[in-house]
Amino acid sequence: MENPAGKLHSFIIEAKKIKDSNIKVEDALSKLWNEKSYPRIYTKFAKMMQIPEEIEQSINDYIPEQEQFCRRTVSGLKNAFSKVRLHTNWNSFVTDLNVHIEDKLGSISSQIEPKLCSNEITDNTLEELKQEVDNLINSINTAEDLEDDFKNKLVNYLQKILSCIDDYSVTGSAPIFDSVAEVVGYTCLDESFGKNMKDEKKGIKELFKKVTETFSTANTYIGLPLMSG
Fold first, then answer.
1. DSSP per residue, 96-164
2. Domain check: are 164 and 214 in the same one?
């Protein structure tokens, strides 16, 4: 499990680096996430708005003795996110995420982190993995020995995984595991698709293994037994 307090604390630190007093929320998020697609920005921000609830749940689960001391911070986060609108001024949103909230959130994150079996994934690791997925997409698209139906289905799955990796800083690893599990499930149901997935020359199975291992917080990698053989 990822640390939701750490995730939001990092977001606030980066958010406060945007000093343009006239920029709108949606444009600031576009800059912050290096994302030009506004529908994707809206989706990611909708998921981010759920993080205060996740933080509250993590406090109750892992540091319940601190609940009363964290109440004001969680309330402040919920208030800030409930007021924000994508077409309003960014500074108004950032101002609501004041120094007290930022500092307390950092403290909450530090207290929760030791109780989680999570590993930090660096930006470099994410970029390298995205590049490998992108390379495989290009390889599959240009492969002459694969049927179009398989190519189209696999590329769609890979693009979905690529999108989930892009959203990792907001959504965590769960959507990535769900996407991999979806592929594994289809591999079991479609014999022809499964056979192509196991083609060692293409390195498809190896990439799925690497994706799953990178984001796994345990030593059990979902789906791999189903793709073996």
1. HS-HHHHHHHHHHHHHHGGGS------HHHHHHHHHHHHHHHHHHHH-SSS-HHHHHHHHHHHHHHHHH
2. yes
